[in-house]
Amino acid sequence: MCIQPSGYYRASLTRERQRGLSDMNSKYATEFAMHRQLLRFIMLTSVIFAVLALFSLYRTIVPSTKSTRWATAPTHFTIPILSPFSSVVEHESSLFNVSQLWVLFVAIGLFAALRWYGIRRK
C-alpha cells in the first residue's frame, strides 16, 4: 500500500524544490561571476609579467646603440667643496635594490588581491 500525497502537499513540495533550485542557481551564478573576475585578474597579471620579462630580456640582449646623455651617465661625481681633484665613486650599498623592492611590492599586492577575492567568496 502506497499512500499518495495530496494535491496541496504535492504543490508545497514542488514549490520548495523550485525555491531550492533557484537558490542554488543564484549562488552558482554569483560564484561563477567571482571566478570569472579572478580569472581575468590572474590573466592580466600574467600578461603584465610576460611583457615585463620580454622587455627586460630584450633590453639585456639588444644593447643600446644610441648615444644620449642618459645612456652614458657618469658613475662618479666630483665634490668641489672638499677638493677640486677628488672624486667620489657611487655604488649601491643597500640591502635591497629597486628591482627587488618592486618585485616584493607586486608580490604583496598579488597576495592581498588573492586574499581579498578569497574572503569575498566565502
Question: Could you walk me through the main structural features you see in this protein, from its secondary elements to its overall organization?
Answer:
The protein has 122 residues and is mainly α. Strand 1 and strand 2 (87-89) form a beta hairpin. The longest helix is centred in the N-terminal third of the chain and has 55 residues, at 7-61. It is built from 2 helices and 2 strands; from the N terminus they run αββα. Strands 1-2 form a two-stranded antiparallel sheet. The chain is rod-shaped, with a radius of gyration of 32 Å. The chain has helices at 7-61, 98-121, and strands spanning 76-78, 87-89.
Features of this protein?
two-stranded antiparallel ribbon; 2 helices; single chain; mainly alpha; 122 residues; 5% strand
What is the tally of helical segments? 2
Order of helices and strands: HEEH
Question: How many E-type strands?
Answer: 2
Overall 3D shape: rod-shaped
Cα distance, first to last residue?
Answer: 47 Å
Rg, alpha carbons: 32 Å
Q: Kindly state the percentage of residues in helix.
A: 55-70%
Biggest beta sheet attributes: 2 strands, antiparallel
Mean pLDDT: 77
Strand content is: under 5%
| Unreliable residue runs | none
Decide which structural class fits the backbone. mainly alpha
For the largest sheet, list the strands in their spatial order: 1-2
Summarize the structure.
By secondary structure, this protein is mainly α. It has helices spanning 7-61, 98-121, and strands at residues 76-78, 87-89.
